[in-house]
Design a protein that fits this description.
By secondary structure, the protein is an alpha+beta fold. Helix content is 23%, strand content 11%. α1 links the parallel β1 and β2. The longest helix has 21 residues. It is globular, with a radius of gyration of 16 Å. The chain starts with 6 loop residues before the first strand and ends in a 26-residue tail after the last strand.
């Protein structure tokens, strides 16, 4: 099976930091940092924007969703439900 898409949905990371509720059992997180939270946020935003630009330069349509509330939700960038859609030609 070969799957291709011309469209990607991405969620902009916001408040991207170590989650105290999951840090103890998630080895990808660390309590010790070499950078401040603001420095990490800046690096993450630059990396995200660079990836969006690279995809768009490659001809991929990228829809970026921004979180619009003031909640401190470090895991919001990881949606727990995946979905696929297929566009069918109109008759």
């Amino acid at each position: 099976m070969n799957q291709e898409t011309g469209n990607v949905l991405m969620i902009r990371p916001r408040d991207f930091h170590c989650n105290p509720q999951t840090v103890l059992d998630n080895h990808f997180q660390s309590i010790e940092f070499d950078f401040s939270r603001d420095e990490i946020e800046t690096m993450i935003q630059e990396e995200f924007d660079g990836f969006v630009n690279a995809l768009r330069t490659s001809g991929i349509n990228v829809s970026v969703f921004d979180l619009d509330d003031d909640s401190d939700t470090p895991d919001a960038v990881f949606p727990n439900n995946w979905f696929s859609s297929k566009r069918t030609p109109s008759d």
